[in-house]
Amino acid sequence: MTDNASSWTHIPVLASETVAYAMPWESGERLVIDGTVGFGGHSSLILQKNPDARILGLDRDDCALAAASEKLAFASDRVRLVHSNFSNLAEQAEKVGWHKVDSILLDIGVSSPQIDNPERGFSFRFKGPLDMRMDRTGTLTAQTVLQTYSERDLTRIFREYGEIREAARLARAICAAREKKVFETVQDFADICEKILGHSDRRSKSSLPVPTLAFQAVRIEVNQELEELKTALESALRLLKKGGRLTVICFHSLEDRIVKHFFLEMAAKCKCPPGYPVCVCNWTPKLNILTKKPVTASEEELSTNPRAACAKLRSAERTEFEIESNIHHKTTNQGGRI
To answer: What is the pLDDT of residue 199?
Structure first.
């Protein structure tokens, strides 16, 4: 299997829901940043819905960008694609003169074409190298992580990013095994996961197979996915116009938790310590949460695209309320539950 962009087919998850939240406007020039443009599925639908919309699409995967260029060729005059991490969206917007935008979309995680390509090393189901880089110009690979990280660091990665209860045991086994043999292929890694922990870990917080959780953990470390997401959310908040939309799709609990807490924090009406009779923080809400609970795939979508089962969409609108006075009474509503 090769990285020929034209050979891939990709079904965007939560397609209609994403467009509804990210592009509620059917006309009028709207500036949109698709921070993870991928293979162009969501951007294509946004451009079709609003013939005046313009998109700045970022992706750190060169193969994905090539596919997106083909997918979005029908509106090439309204699209600019850039090879960049989504955490750099503010910098890339500045380069094209976009100081404020109407909508920012982030579809976080690894795509199906990336998973299904053995050469990328994202899945234990295929024979391939221990790579896992979304940006293949980067120097850190999965092999480097497994071969050089200390037992302590490997334990942290497996526990925090894979939520594997037996993280220390797995890390210890990897450090012992690499003294005898170099980790070179995904199968080398998958084999030791199953040998040490079995195919499933009943004490894990997740129902996913242990190799999947371990691969997820290493992939997150290689691509610094959680830190990238935190930076992107902060940059997006600064870039959005009042009334602009921030829409994020996540595929596992670690990402979704970051988005959920960020939305709640930015939607809070007050940040004074509990018990204060009046508010003195002068904080004003920065976001109005549009999805009180995450949007998930319908049964109809799941029947045609089972990989959408893990997808969770959250969306919020940029807003700032005027402060009527420097000191105002607190309310019991701290931003609502999601």
So the answer is: 58
